[in-house]
Write a structure and sequence with these properties.
mainly alpha, elongated, Arc Repressor Mutant, subunit A, about 80 residues
Amino acid sequence: MKPSLTCREFVEFLDRYLCRELPAETSARFDAHLACCPTCSAYASTYRETVALARRAFEADDAPVSGVPEELVLAILAASRPTT
């Protein structure tokens, strides 16, 4: 097996690692790097949490936010319409 990854290599392929899209040997190198690099370990943890939060933000079961003034909603909708 090749030596552990550098931090730069780790970050470049983190998304593929978390999606289990890397070959077994490369994945093992990621595991080895995580075991010895607290900075990348913390980064990977934060990355996982961010992805999970982003996915939950678009779940259909979420209730609409209450308490938003109707004027604000209308202004946002008006601003998002293309002008002709």
